[in-house]
Structure formats: structure tokens, C-alpha cells
Predict the structure.
Amino acid sequence: MNDPPVRSVRLAIVGSGPAGLTAALYAARANLAPLVLSGVPAGGQLTLTSEVENFPGFPEGIQGPELIERMRQQAAKFGTTFLDDNVRSVDLSRRPFVLVTGSMGTVHAEAVIVATGANARWLDLPNEQRLRGKGVSACATCDGFFFKGREIVVVGGGDSAMEEALFLTKFATRVTVVHRRPQLRASSILQGRAREHPKIHFVLDADIVDVLGAESVEGIVVRERKAAAPRTIPAQGLFVAIGHDPATEVFRHALEVDSHGYLKTTEITHTNVPGVFAAGDVYDHRYRQAVTAAGLGCMAALDAQKYLEESPAPAPSGT
Ligand code: NAP
């Protein structure tokens, strides 16, 4: 059997959402011939989104998968290559850094940008998954605009749920927050704002057990712990705000992460390992937008370029 191939590159970019692909575009235009380890499935959260109306340059809106495909083509045009595989393990303790993929061999890189993103948590109900993009969303900033004059349920009891609920009052006629415990987890300031808002109502100590609707959301079935039977809240939207999980598993032994698993950085993009940079939602849990991820990808590429100019490749071992 043949040994899996080893590729040596100046810059490897892990992840192919807006952060990774923008980093690739900038690095390719700086003649770094980056290699993108795309992940499977490739493209990140935007590929799970339908209409994107808030990415500048597309006044008529654009479908999330198409936006990603265009970014990928633009990066490829200037010399980016792609490996559509996941990274299974890394050794970042010395240069060249080593990235081992699932089935497409090993990559040696003089610099690395980690742009693996974060995944929204879902309730994992079959109809919730079926109706994603058809009334079910995990991003009020992205999708709230589509719910003008509608009734919405937000699930979650943390700061994100309060922020989403408050934001959604700009569009919705009524926002019902459903939380699984009697007490909210959110900070008292955000709780206070939400509780005082005339459009926001709370159903506490309750679980969402189903999402109704054939082609789009029509109602949310909740089971309150103290009630005898489930009941349906009429709603055309369900916003799931139960947290995000950064995709950092393979890097956690090699790079510093915070208590939630997000990469820790200094000077915006620098991880604790010189030559390894972070871009996008893998460390930015605050803004989480396609356009901010793209901007951070640009910054990481410029920082990686500077690093490679100032830190030439080490001589091969044994010389
Ligand atoms: P979070 O604080 O982890 O809250 C997640 C919420 O979802 C919790 O109320 C949790 O319930 C609930 N939940 C988790 N899994 C669930 C499930 N399977 N079914 C039903 N409910 C579930 O997440 P977050 O609100 O996204 O906030 C993350 C971090 O960002 C926090 O540190 C937060 O303070 C920060 N943040 C700050 C701001 C701000 O200051 N403006 C805004 C947003 C986020 P339990 O309470 O029962 O665990």
C-alpha cells in the first residue's frame, strides 16, 4: 500500500467559510499559494443558510451556498488549492507545522490559519431540522428581517436568547421566550430589558417538543413541566439561541482556548503559537457575521504574510 502523500506548503488554511476563503484570497494574491483544508462538508454555516441580505455588494441578496461558491472561485482564481478533507490531528510544537487529514495525507506548513468556525447548537428535533431556513433559524441578525409582522418563539435562557428576543421585537408582533428551567441564565441587565419589553413573553420550565408546519413554521409545541398536556404556541418563526460550539477539538491540545473552547488570541489574530493565526467564529463569539468573519480572514492572511516574511522557513532537519 502507498504511504499517504505529504504536501509542503507555505500557508495552510483550515476551514472554508468566509474567514478561511477570504484569508485564502488575500494569501493567494500575495503569492503564498495557500492550501485550504476545506473540511467536510465544506463551506461552513453559510452553506446552511438560504437568503443572505446583509453581505455588502449584493443589494438583491444572495443564497448562502452561492456566496460561498463565489468566494471559493475567487480564491482559486489567484492560486489557492483545496483539499476537501477534515484535519484529524495536528502537531504545532515545531515548524513546519504538521496537519494530518482523514484520507488525503499529511500537510507540512510554515504557517497556519485556523478558520474552523463554530456551530450553532440545535434542539435536534426532526421537524426543527426539516424547517431550517423555512422559519427555523439560529441567527436573528441574519434572518429577523424576514419576520416582519409575524409571531416568533425564541428558545434559550442565556444572554444570546435575550439579545435575539430583544432584536426580534423590531420586526415581530410577539416574541415568546421558551426556557427549560424556571430561572434564566442571562445577565440581570439583559433579563430586565427583556422582561420589561411589552412584546416579549416568557414560558419557563418548559421544553419545545415539536415544530409544526409543512412548508414553513406554523406553530411550536411546548411541554410545560407543571402542565398536564403539551400546547401549541402559534408562531411563524423559531429562533434557536442555546449556544454555539467552536470547532476546535483537534486544536485544543496545541493551542490555548478559553473556558468555552474558543481559541484565545492576542493582537486580534495571533494564537499563542507564533505562526499560527485564527480567523472568524473560531475565536470571535461576539459578532459571528459572515462579513466580520471575512474581515478577520483578511487580517489573519496579512498577519501570516508578515510572519512568513520575517520568519523564514527553518532548514530541513538533518542538515
Ligand atoms: P449560554 O450562556 O450557554 O446559554 C445557553 C442557554 O441555552 C442556557 O439557558 C441553556 O439552558 C440553554 N440550553 C442549552 N442547551 C439546551 C437544549 N438542548 N435545550 C434547551 N435549552 C438549552 O449561551 P449564550 O447565551 O449563547 O452565551 C454564550 C456566552 O456569550 C455567555 O458567556 C454569554 O454571557 C455571552 N454573551 C454575552 C452577551 C452580552 O453580554 N451582550 C450576548 C450574548 C452572549 P440552561 O440555562 O438550563 O443551561
